[in-house]
Structures are given as C-alpha cells and as structure tokens.
C-alpha cells in the first residue's frame, strides 16, 4: 500500500535535508556485530524500506519495496573534522527513488567506535533516530549475550505513520482568511504548475553546496556544570532551553527572531516519521532587568507558544494544504537564475520571504532512551540538525550521561560572527553553573579587568 507524502514535503527538494547523529559506542563491539545490528534495526520500520516515487501530477508517495533495504555501511580508518564530515555528507544527495535514506559511517578506535548515522530528514526526525539507535544497541547486546551469533530475529515491521490534515485538524483549523489565501495560491498555481525531477534537483543540490559550505562546531557542557545548571533553572522556574536562549539573546545584543523545534508527537504517533515543527518568536535581552528576570520572560514567551499543538501544527497544516509542487518550487528559489512570480508571492505571504532566521535550536533534552546495553554504552552523542537555507545558525542539543552536547551549523552573515556568539553561549552556561552573577557582557568584562 502506498502512502502519500504530505508532512515533510518541504524536505523533498530541499538541498539541506541531512541529519547527522555522531556518537561513541563504548565496549568495543566487533564490526561484524555492528553491521548485523544496523541491518536488523532498519527492518523495524517500513518507512526505511520504501522508495519515494512521483506521479504525472507531481504527487509523491512512499512505495514499499519488494525486498527490504540493505543499508549503506562504510567502515573508515580515518576521521574528518565535524565541519568536513558535515559538508561532505550533506552535499551527497540521497537517491530517494531507489530508497536511499541513510548512510552508516563506522570509525573504529582503540577502545571505542565512532558511529555516524546520516539520514535524510524526509523519513524521520531526531526522536526517530533515537529509536533506531536504541534498536542497534539492543541488537549488539543480544549478539553479545548469544556468544557472538550474528543471527538476529526478524522484527515485525512497523507500518508507516504520517501526519495527515485530518490528524492536524483535531488540534487546529485554518481560519477563513488563511483558507482563502491557500485556495488563491492553489488556483493561481494550477495554470503554471511546475513538476521537478530528481535529476533537476541533483544539479541544483550540487550547485548549492559548491556555493554554500557551512561552518560546524561542537561543544560539550560537563556533567558537573549541567547538574548545577539544572538545579538553578528549577529554582528560577525556567528550563535549560530557556536559559540557552536567554544567554544567546544577551550575546546578540538586540531584538532577534529565534526559532525552536517543537515535538508534535501524540500517543497516536509513536513510530518513525516526521512529527516536529518549529516556532519563531522575538527574543530580546533587556539590560535594565536582571538576568533571571530576562530568563523568565523568554521562558514564558516560548512556553506560551508551545503549550498545546495548535500553534506548531498550524504551519504544517498550511503547507499540507498547498499544492506540493508549489512547496517544491519554493526550494528552487535558492537556485541561481530561478524566478517565479507566484512562488515568490507565496513565500512572501505565507513564509519568510527574503528573511532568514538568525538562530534556531533543536533541543531533545535529556536522552529518552537508555544509554547502557549490557557491556556497551552510548556516549557523547552530537546531533547535526540541517541548516535550512532559511536559517543562519542551527543548534542540535541533547543531554547524554549528564553531559549536554551542542552541535552548531552556521553561516556568518549579516555582520554576525557566530563563532563569537557561540563562545559567549558556552561561557555563559559555565558562569551560571559556577554561580557567577549574571550581568551584561560589558559589565562582566569590566569585572574581569
């Protein structure tokens, strides 16, 4: 049975759709055991054993393959920097028509293994990847308990779950104005509809990555610092994520639009797939207020927008209600020489227009899966969240074994030095952990003189 691609259509022809999980596996499993564990883990989810094919009208579908996918697994005897690896892997398009959605890059070390999972966002979000990691680690433990026997039980494959408009409309509906706007664009687009091919996208993607290499840096907040940070945040009535945005707002020094990713999963949607959306808020650090007063204000703004699913799902409903090929065309606006009046009017009206979001974070919080599996353990997991052309800086954040990792992908533009911004964020987190009184950056510099 085929399943129409709706939520996630924006990733189909997006040149930046690659997620990367980078982590250590402690306990030194054999390469053969790890390969067997990966191959078996992928069998758990039908969405990872499909192809994505289009019809003559430009609709795309998940089409189950006659035989299961054999995942791409590569063992390397060298390790690139985070920046080199991210640019390398992000610039290699997946062949979705063949069912290529993931690449597994294994780097053996003397006493652990570096594991990289590279995934096209169209099949799953960060929580989905955590599910896959858990299956891999459980398989490794099973093989160890079975004295190295690589034969694993074939799992029952979970059917594809997609977020449809009917599901979304249980939480929110388009008002009359938005519905009329969507209908207007669909009607106008009908006569000028463009259907893009994978070949056209491949050319576009290559051009994009030649012109837009990204910067990547990784930072780690120690378990000791995180313990203090969590206690302080609880005492002040905010979250660690709100603290992160407060410090970032102070570093920017002016009112900025900031985005944050919201988990839209419900009990109904527990399998592999895309169940997240992002919200955009105006953040401003008021120097006339105390640090913690600023933190509470920013916390309340973020909490208010995400207190139920109606706000984060509204954008998904709008996108799902538009002709999918119009969404495709909006991605091609980032291709040199591509122009279209209706497409431009759509992004100016219902998207960001020519603006970009200076700062966005996808924070998975404390890891939602176990980290220890028999003699094997997950450690230092970094999440690479794709730097969409509409973003200037995207942070992937997660806390594993008490340590918080931050993977930042960014492009320095609009006069902003993101490396300096991120230095201030990391320094600010450490200062909070050490109980340093939080003042403005200028005041802190004076105190240090």
UniProtKB/TrEMBL annotation:
Database matches in InterPro entries: Alcohol_O-acetyltransferase, CAT-like_dom_sf, Condensation_dom
Residue ranges constituting the Condensation domain according to the UniProt record: 23-145
GO MF: catalytic activity
GO biological process, one term: lipid biosynthetic process
Superkingdom of the organism of origin: Bacteria
Name of the featured protein: Uncharacterized protein, contains a NRPS condensation (Elongation) domain
Gene source species: [Clostridium] polysaccharolyticum
């Amino acid at each position: 049975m085929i399943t129409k691609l709706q939520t996630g259509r924006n990733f189909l022809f997006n040149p930046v759709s690659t997620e990367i999980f980078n982590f250590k596996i402690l306990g030194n499993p054999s390469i053969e055991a790890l390969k067997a564990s990966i191959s078996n883990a992928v069998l758990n989810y039908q969405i990872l054993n499909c192809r994505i094919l289009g019809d003559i009208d430009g609709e795309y579908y998940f089409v189950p393959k006659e035989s299961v996918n054999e995942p791409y697994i590569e063992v390397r005897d060298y390790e690139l920097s985070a920046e080199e690896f991210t640019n390398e892997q992000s610039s290699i398009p997946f062949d979705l028509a063949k069912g290529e959605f993931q690449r597994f890059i294994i780097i053996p070390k003397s006493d652990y293994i570096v594991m990289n999972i590279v995934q096209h966002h169209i099949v799953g979000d960060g929580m989905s990847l955590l599910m896959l990691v858990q299956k891999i680690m459980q398989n490794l433990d099973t093989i160890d308990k079975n004295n190295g026997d690589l034969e694993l039980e074939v799992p029952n494959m979970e059917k594809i779950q997609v977020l449809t408009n009917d599901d979304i409309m249980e939480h929110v509906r388009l008002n009359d104005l938005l519905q009329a706007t969507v209908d207007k664009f669909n009607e106008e687009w009908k006569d000028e509809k463009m259907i893009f091919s994978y070949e056209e996208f491949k050319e576009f993607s290559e051009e994009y990555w030649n012109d837009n290499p990204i910067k990547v840096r990784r930072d780690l907040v120690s378990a000791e610092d995180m313990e203090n940070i969590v206690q302080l945040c609880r005492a002040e009535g905010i979250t660690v994520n709100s603290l992160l945005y407060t410090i970032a707002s102070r570093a920017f020094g002016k009112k900025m639009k900031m985005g944050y990713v919201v988990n839209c999963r419900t009990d109904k949607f527990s399998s592999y797939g895309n169940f997240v959306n992002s919200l955009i808020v105006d953040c401003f650090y008021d120097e006339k207020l105390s640090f913690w007063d600023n933190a509470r204000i920013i916390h309340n703004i973020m909490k208010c927008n995400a207190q139920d699913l109606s706000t984060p799902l509204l954008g998904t409903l709008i996108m799902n209600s538009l002709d999918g090929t119009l969404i495709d065309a909006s991605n091609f606006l980032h291709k040199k020489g591509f122009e279209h009046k209706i497409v431009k009017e759509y992004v100016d009206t219902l998207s960001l227009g020519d603006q970009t979001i200076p700062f966005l974070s996808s924070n998975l919080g404390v890891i939602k899966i176990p980290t220890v599996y028999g003699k094997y353990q997950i450690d230092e997991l970094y999440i690479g969240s794709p730097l969409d052309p509409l973003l200037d800086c995207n942070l992937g954040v997660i806390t594993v074994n008490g340590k918080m990792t931050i993977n930042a992908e960014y492009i320095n533009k609009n006069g902003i030095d993101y490396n300096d911004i991120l230095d201030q964020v990391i320094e600010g987190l450490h200062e909070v952990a050490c109980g340093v009184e939080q003042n403005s950056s200028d005041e802190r510099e004076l105190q240090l003189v």
